[in-house]
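In this section we walk through a basic example: taking a raw amino acid sequence and producing a predicted 3D structure, encoded as discrete structure tokens. The instruction is simple. Fold the sequence below.
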Amino acid sequence: LEFCLPQNMANKGPSYGMSRKVQSKIEKKYDKELEEQLVEWITVQCGPDVGRPDRGHLGFQVWLKNGVILSKLVNSLYPDDSKSVRVPENLPSRVFKQMEQVAQFPKAAEDYGVTKTDMFQTVDLFEGKDMVAVQRTLKALGSLAVTKNDGHYCGDPNWFMKKAQEHKREFTENQLQEGKHVIGLQMGSNRGASQASMTGYGEPWQIIS
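The resulting token sequence is shown next.
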């Protein structure tokens, strides 16, 4: 017994129209100037042995895809005896090894201080789904490295904006005592306020003609 699908169903494959539209929007947001800036920083930070990518989001993706350059980048922001990510001696050739290497970077970047909202997912880079997110993460990492100013950042500090830092106000003992004195005066003046015109809770107002 044979079962035949209707002709229009048999020839119909999965629809990629919507995903292609979304992908196109993402690619339009890709910042080519930021790409050049990030490439300059990474090559200075990691050294010339990392090479340089072909221009464009595809070249940038292929350059970072196996995760090794990203691992070297985050390691370079730590002292030599305190590396954050293990870097293999030989470049990983198998897909799962490359993805495994890439997956180490977001965790290391988060430990360094990059927020989760600025973090890309492994598939964003490995499958090229969202290279804008990859740019955002690297930009946040660079900004944080410049802000820390701990001697491990290499390159022009003007490549990245410093992150806003919390300003904590510290008061002297005299200022604290003066503050208590002001509060005491305010409480004293409130005690003298007349309550003659106030009514008890739930009591009706008395109107005197």
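Looking at the output, two observations stand out. The chain has a mean pLDDT of 81. Residues 19-148 form a domain with the Actin-binding Protein, T-fimbrin; domain 1 fold (CATH 1.10.418.10). In the next section we compare this with other chains.
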